[in-house]
């Protein structure tokens, strides 16, 4: 009797798991940034207009750069909230595209890994067609899962990847938070960064937050240790939490990370640094 009840409960959880997962994993904001806020952040819609766009880019685009970085943000807010990437990395000579997800920031589409990765892959393709090499991808939290999956799926050459507060696999994170649930059965989206980066041959920078209360840093360490095919380096921001890491870094830090990702750093790979 108890076994039958357990089976029924698990079956019900599996059937409703998609909705439960999406409520826990995605926090889409449908608000569009105002023209005033765009001007204040010195960004504009990319590729088209505010009603038909794939993300944002610096308002004063320049011709020659050190490369193009496509940034995939975390599960809350919108791409327009990440204008700090444009400022910090633009100062170092990089063109930055703040990619937006379907259902975020007024964009149409569906939530979920498949929809996000397909859309992100198209953004990467369009950026490559327009700007050429070198091309880098940056992921932040959930965006690390998107960036890693794109690196596996796209036919476009990605020269380097920067992952900020990443996980190893979504299943690993979910199991640690819900140890008594059969999370492998409940998860529709996998975001398996370990598997998706297994064959990547470029350069990978991993950034962990020492006091990460959302994705404990062991997940970033486990991801880093799994990377056996790529040149890699890890930075740990010791005093930072999941959402305030930006407070603990500066232009010098960004330069060090991007020098490695872009292969301008002649230092030894497979090292860990602490900030």
Multimerization status: single chain
Query: In angstroms, what separates the terminal alpha carbons?
Result: 56 Å
Main sheet characteristics: 9 strands, mixed
Which value, in Å, is the CA radius of gyration? Answer: 19 Å
Q: Write down the overall geometry.
A: globular
Strand sequence of the main sheet, in spatial order?
A: 2-3-6-4-7-8-9-10-11
Low-confidence stretches: 1-17
**What's the rounded overall pLDDT mean?**
88
* Total count of strands: 11
User: Pairing-aware structural class of the strands and helices?
Assistant: alpha/beta
Q: Provide the β-strand percentage band.
A: 15-25%
**Helix fraction by DSSP (H/I, runs of at least 4):** 25-40%
**What is the tally of helical segments?**
10
**Element order: H for helix, E for strand:** HEHEEEEHEHEHEHHHEHEHE
């Amino acid at each position: 009797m108890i076994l039958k009840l357990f089976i029924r409960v698990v079956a019900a959880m599996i059937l409703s798991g998609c909705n439960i997962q999406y409520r826990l994993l995605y926090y889409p904001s449908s608000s569009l940034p105002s023209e005033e806020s765009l001007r204040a952040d010195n960004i504009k819609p990319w590729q088209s207009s505010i009603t038909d766009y794939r993300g944002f880019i610096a308002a004063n685009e320049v011709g020659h750069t050190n490369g193009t970085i496509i940034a995939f943000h975390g599960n809350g807010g919108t791409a327009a909230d990440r204008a700090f990437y444009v400022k910090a990395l633009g100062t170092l000579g990089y063109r930055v595209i703040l990619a937006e997800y379907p259902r975020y920031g007024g964009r149409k589409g569906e939530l979920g890994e498949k929809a996000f990765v397909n859309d992100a892959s198209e953004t990467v393709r369009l950026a490559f067609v327009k700007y050429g090499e070198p091309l880098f991808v940056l992921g932040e939290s959930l965006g690390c899962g998107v960036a890693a999956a794109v690196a596996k799926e796209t036919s476009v050459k990605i020269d380097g990847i920067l992952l900020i507060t990443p996980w190893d696999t979504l299943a690993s994170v979910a199991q640690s938070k819900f140890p008594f649930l059969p999370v492998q059965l409940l998860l529709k989206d996998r975001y398996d960064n370990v598997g998706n980066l297994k064959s990547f041959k470029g350069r990978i920078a991993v950034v962990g937050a020492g006091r990460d209360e959302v994705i404990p840093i062991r997940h970033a360490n486990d991801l880093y240790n799994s990377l056996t095919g790529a040149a890699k380096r890890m930075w740990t921001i010791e005093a930072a939490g999941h959402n305030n890491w930006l407070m603990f870094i500066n232009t010098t830090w960004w330069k060090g990370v991007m020098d490695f990702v872009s292969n301008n750093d002649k230092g030894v790979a497979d090292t860990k640094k602490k900030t």
